[in-house]
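Discussion board: Methods & Data

I've been asked by a reviewer to show the raw model output for two of the constructs in my manuscript, not just the figures. I'm not sure how much to include, so I'm pasting the format here to get opinions. Each protein appears as its amino acid sequence followed by a line of discrete structure tokens. Is this the kind of thing reviewers expect to see in a supplement, or should I convert it first? Here is construct A:
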Amino acid sequence: MEVRNARRWAPHGGNRWVIAATALFAAVSIRAALHPLLGPVMPETSFLIAAILVEYYCGIAPAVCVMLAGLCIADYLFIPPYRRPEIINQADLWLLISYSLVTILVITLVERLKRAQYRAQLLTAVSQSRYEMLLRHDNERLLARRATDEMRRMLHYIAQHNRSLILIRALDSANSLSPGSFLAAAATATPSGIIDDQSFRVGVAYGAKHSQVHQEDLARVTERLVPGLHRMRFLSAGHGWRPVECVCDRFMTTSGEFLVLRAND
């Protein structure tokens, strides 16, 4: 995969030039401190190390600047005759060739390694993002399938208990029952007409049994309906009221959350 941003691994701003200048100053100081001991031997070593470190942390542009500055300083201060730039001898040519070739080779290798490392990091980040998107999509698909299955289960439940239904309530006001959507689906599932469209109001649809329930109990469960068992008063044949156990079930569907209350058969 082509990753064009791999070459932009180095940090930006003025801090990298400050670091490069500090590394160059440290290389000069260390070599000057060792000059009485080493003399003209290996005058470029500290500058080579400084250029490599600067390349590793700051990028190729500061490293090249450190390399060129180190070449001039090493030739001027640590190659005899000292402080005589107008005199060029074999030591100067050897320093120019060996130091330049070795430094360019090493910083080029470091640059390629840093770009490969940064490219791997970018690809890892992209792969992680795609993996998270795939997981999110898979979770959404599973949730949608579960909600669809729940809708089918609710329609089957309504068709099975159509004669004992009292009411259906939508808990989410944004997905409240509507005559054109849910009632149509329910009527299709239950041809016998389990829901009284005339008794419809926002969020609540009444079933065939609601007219036999005591109005106080009906108002109570309509406002504070929760899943579980409910004891309600039903009108008996002798025009009296008898307690009946009712069951409320919850369904999480694609259209929202619904509570279905029915008389316990």
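Construct B, same format:
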Amino acid sequence: MGKPNPASRRAALEAQRQAALASRRRGRMIGGLVGALCGLLLAAGLAWWWNVRNQPEPVAVGSQVAVSHASNQGRGITVAKTPTGKPTLVVYEDYQCPWCKVAHDGMGPQIDALVAKGEIGVEVRTLDMLDAGLNNDASLRAATAAACADVDGTHTKYRDTVFANQPQKEGTGYTDQQLRQDFAASAGVKDLTAFQTCYDQRQTHDAVQKVLDAARDADRDTSTPQYWAADEKGELKNQLDLKTLMGQRNPTEEELLAAIKAAA
């Protein structure tokens, strides 16, 4: 048997070396992929845990009560009944919305004056659209509390109180202490025990949800604030241009009434 060819032996050794290198590279690649996958799974797990940890505890919904001034098949709450032949001002608002507070503060006195003179009716449709963006449920809880105040007969004062105490920093929200105790006291809620039971057991849940569903089902933008002119049946006609109406200063009673009539 002849001696091995040195060239063939070197080729065989080189082939073995290349195979070993390739094997190590595959090992490192697989290890990297496994590490990356584990990292993704860990991140996903942590994200899931954080979301679950920060979800509000489910609240038991008690027996429902009728909202005293529900309007238009439950699409809102009547703040002031519309006189015969006069337009209705329909307000879409969110209690966490800073511009809703600006509009409420800037036009509230004029609206009250027009109501007192029998010039308009007013309907409020309260939304909770900011809850998702702000990662809380303060808008929904405030809407629930305001509906409970309507059952008590103090909706308008309660609504004013919530806006007056809106946090300066958007997203701070409202605490249960504020909504069920502090604001109720400031608004002069007549039956505090019944109001707090209504709030704690979400007894206006169905009424509030009906308003939200009606707004979401409408084929239009549901951002807030929105001020609309409507007929006596509450059917929306045209939206007021708040940017123009409040661009330089708050409108006078006459200017506001003219804008409502023009949109009706």
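Answer (T.O., handling editor elsewhere):
This is acceptable in a supplement if you add a one-line summary per construct. For B, something like: The domain at 70-263 is CATH 3.40.30.10 (Glutaredoxin).
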